[in-house]
Structure formats: structure tokens, C-alpha cells
Amino acid sequence: MQFPVYQRLLAVDTAPLSGDKVNRSELGTMEQLCNYCNQLLDSDVVDKVVDIDYSENLHRKVYQKHFGRQIRQTHNYKGYPILGSLFAIEVVESDYLLRIDNDMLFHQEPY
Questions:
Q1: 1, 11, 19, 66: which could join 88 in a potential S-S bond, CB 3.0 to 4.6 Å?
Q2: Alpha carbon distances (Å) from 60 to 24, 63, 72, 87, 92
Q3: From the CB of residue 88, how many other CB atoms can be counted at a distance below 10 Å?
Q4: Cβ neighbours of 98 (radius 10 Å)
Q5: Up-side HSE of residue 10: CA atoms within 13 Å toward CB?
Q6: How far apart are CA 43 and CA 68, in angstroms?
Q7: b/e map of 6-41 (b: 16 or more CB within 10 Å)?
Q8: What is the DSSP-derived secondary structure letter of residue 73?
């Protein structure tokens, strides 16, 4: 089934790895990540790929808006991109948002 979607955005975390992500041997390179992102664009799976903006200005603005205070870290202790999650909400141009993370699975019976 097709649903009307305004934009399928992929926000890419390009920050250095932290937390338990640092020692994962199965991780690819940044070049591989860019290639996969381009493949998703070329095959029309996503409409837009953006790198998460880790600038100090956006960092302050987004944390103040969502948490009402400043938080120094951009990632939690396990390496999860806190700022990146909020960035994806801020950058999308829509009244409605479905945010899907990398550990979510979907299943649909064949029709």
C-alpha cells in the first residue's frame, strides 16, 4: 500500500563514535556510509540525505527548545545521538512526522 509522504529524509550521524559504538569491529567506513546513502537516493528509497548539524549554535538552540536548558553532550553514554534525534525533528518540513530509528522493524503480510 502506498501512503502520501511529503519527504523521506535520512539524517546521517557523522560525529566520531562514542560509548559502546567505539569498539564494534563490524562497522564500516564513512566512505561506505556515503555510498549506501547515495544508493538509497538513487533508488528513490529516500528523497534527501542530510548530515546532522553539530554546530554550537544549533546545539544550544535545539536543547533549549526541547529541554529548556543546555546539555553539553550531543550523544548519551552509550553513543546514541540525542542531538541527532532532535535535529531530524527540527529539519523536516511537515506538519506531521514519523520518525524511524535504526532498531525498528516493520512487517506486513503479503497482499
A1: 11
A2: 30, 5, 9, 12, 19
A3: 20
A4: 9
A5: 17
A6: 40
A7: eebbbbebeeeebeeeeeeeeeeeeeeeeeebeeee
A8: -
d(CA 43, CA 96) in angstroms, rounded, equals 24
CA distances from 77 to 22, 59, 73 (A): 12, 17, 9
Show the CA angle centred on residue 97, arms to residues 93 and 99, nearest 5°.
Answer: 115
pTM of the entire predicted model = 0.77
pLDDT band at 29 (very low <50, low <70, confident <90, very high): confident
pLDDT at 72 over 70: yes
* pLDDT score at 68: 94
Residues 86 and 6: beta-carbon distance below 8 Å: no
Phi first, then psi, for residue 51 (nearest 5°) are -80, 140
Query: Which of helix, strand or coil describes residue 49?
Result: strand
